[in-house]
Amino acid sequence: MGDMEMNTDLLVIGGGPGGYGAAFRAADLGFDVVMVDQLPRPGGGCLHRGCIPSKTFLHLAELILDARGAKRMGLGFAEPHLDLSAMRAWKERVIDKVADGLETLAKRRGILLVQGQARFDSSNSVRLEGAEYSRIRFKQGIIATGSRPLEIPGVPLMPGGRIMDSAAALMLPDIPQSLLVVGGGYVGLELGSVYGAFGSRVTLVEREDRLLTQVDADLVQPMQHRLSKLMTDILVGVELTEMQENDEGVDVRFTLAGKSERRRFDRVLVAIGRIPNSDDLGLEHTGISLDTRGYIKIDDRQRTTDHHLFAVGDVAGGVMLAHKATREGRVAAEVIAGQKSGFDARAIPAVVYTDPQISWCGLTEREAKAGDIPYVVQKFPWKYSGRAQTMGMTDGFTKLLTEPQSGRILGVGICGRNAEGLISEAALAIEMGATAEDLALTVHPHPTLSETEAEAAEIFQGSPTHMLPASK
Amino acid sequence: MTSSFRLPDLGEGVHEAEILALSVSPGQSVREGDIIMEIETDKAAVEIPSPFSGTVSELLVKVGDMAVVGDVLITFTTKESATTDNSAAVPDTAAVDTGRNQRPVPASPSTRRLARELGVDLHEVTPSGSGGIVTKEDVESHAAKKTDSEPATSEPEPGPPQEPAGMQPATGRTGLPDFAKWGEIERLPFRSIRRATANQMTSSWTQIPHVHCQDNVDITRLEAFRQKHKTEIEAAGGRLTMTLFAMKAVTTALKNYPYFNASLDLQAQEIVLKHFFNIGIAVDTDHGLLVPVIRDVDRKSIKELAVEVDGAITRARAGTHSREEMQGGTFTITNAGALGGSQFSAIINHPEVAILGLGQGRMQPAVITDERGRDEIVPRLIMPILLCFDHRVVDGADAIRFLRLVIDALEDPDELLITMI
Predict the structure, then answer these.
(1) ipTM over the 0.85 cut-off
(2) A3, A75, A264, B126: which one has the fewest Cβ atoms less than 10 Å from its Cβ?
(3) What number is the average pLDDT over the span A105-130?
(4) Helices assigned H by DSSP within B212-348
(5) What is the distance in angstroms between the Cα of A413 and the nearest Cα belonging to chain B?
(6) What is the CATH number of domain B2-89?
(7) Model-level pTM greater than 0.90?
């Protein structure tokens, strides 16, 4: 700690996927880069509090559910034994491995990693708190400070308390007998699934009248059906009125269909959304402007209203996804290097890692209807897929949204096993401007789930192989 | 509390400026309207008054920096409670897909990147792929067509200044050898007037098919005339130079051949004839080439012009000229004679159609035929003259006629006076 000042070409604030995406690209383009993050190691919320730790546990949850499901195929396992401390250690090892990799990549590129909280004191400098340097001056800056879980007003989250946010839930403090998940978005569904598979009685409540409100309802339906067996209760249209933590548990009062109910839970997970980390950055000392919800305003080149400052990832608004942040970071670095780069992705795939998974990209039916965009749907149910049958996963489907005349693929939605892996072909098809014909004429290996995408495209052609055409 | 002073929009086509001088320092209090800095844009220095009253908190630029419109240059602490800035004048950046309500054009990500790099709007490209897909080749051929047919007056892009092809550094390394291997080198910034000149010359040379006509003018009589009237013009505060006579002679020629007083508008597919005669004079200054424009030359006497030209040249050399003074020309004259130059060539001052060059008048043997038909070799003062023209707008025959008219006027002061009437 001291009064040391540092100068750099490019300062990146935030070490998550947006920040390191930008820093790595900028370093490769010849810039002198400093990356500041509050956490001791790079990776940001994604690596330390989100994507990676949740997928570590979701993998274990999937093993449990698959082992259970194998019984009807004639393969029986004993009930799983959960060694929580070993599971936590496993998760930490995964995080460490990835952080090691990021650190090596940063060091080999000559990027200086600084731990501390950065706040602007001018448009070209930040003050650092808790760091070995007190101030960094820079020519250009990229803000990639991400977002944090939104709290329920009046419900404080105490460290170690029974009311948790997603980061606290991923610490896996215990397996509560009963868990209330507040929020039917992907975080609530994923972590609710983890705790459900690990043995908690999970009640999930959502204020809106359905789960995953941004996803087409038909994609949600098979997932919700399966999840209703894993969870005790999935309640929608719920208004929370009171939440009180005490020694025995958390007393929750809510109204459902006009009736007030009171229940006690051992723990509560609050997953009602995220808010941008733009409020404690000293942005008032810059020319940056925020929108009404606190996101930094940017143009299609990631430039803020203060033109040598850029913003990427969650803090810059749009969908809050790591891969979108990384691309934005790379765009910002390229623009800073004078390239005519821009963010113009047409398909940002999204994945919900429930069992079954849901993934989608490009246009959704909701958006098409709202935007009055003409489209037709081709839906291939997985019960016609041999591979889905072998896995006993036949309740999913693959659907394409195509332009009526040309058959141009506008959007794809998948519900089913490994939807995460299947969506990338769809993203490539949309980005390339491919048509259903292109997809249908691409030979897909048999038997795989990827065939369902080609079969859906064949429906557009009027002649799918593994189901009857509509005319027969 | 804090106000940011941003580089304001400086007018059409000006995206950036060099900071020439800063007249304030941190801690200094300023009143609205006080001059806070001097900047140079497009070959002219401009003093910038403060839009705020308050205390300077930080200077974010230093002398010599290049700033882009919208950049924060100075921050102030002001008494007003709200955080303000002068950014209202800064245009918002357009989206990649112009026209948000237009449907996206099917094209692969790499094709879209290429379009962005070449400044091509995908909606304007004729697709060759199946079902209207735009390919890389489509974008390339569209861009080639565009540069063929479009003058540099294309819509200015917000942000980085648009420079003609050939002025843009290749991304990445320069492609130049490491000169330091062979001896000591110095690298100087390529900025300000030098860069503006380079921009202007590149767009002129790459867009205009230039043709030169060279000739000689016998200015023996004109020089005698000039010597005779020199002192009276000096008394009036001007300088009677050969350029002045050339300005008058050219104006007469322009009236006779209006296509030389024109600009080509390729976008509109029209030739713009200008019914005013504003002549630019190329001036060599310590900081580079400047072309002040003398307006309405046809309506001014030689004496008036002498005073005005002298004033414009003095201001250009002192760097006190305004941006407006450098704009609006319809034809340019460059006189290499004063520096001792004889034969040379010239580049048209785009988007004008022609430029006249004068060399140094030198005593030379000339063959004169007297009234009895006898040839005689006599010493005469001969000045090289050249006309360079845009062959898209005018043809060689008219150029020769144009130049002949100028030569005739310059060879015979009486003729010059008569044509001026």
Answers:
(1) no
(2) A3
(3) 94
(4) 220-235, 242-256, 302-318
(5) 20
(6) 2.40.50.100
(7) no
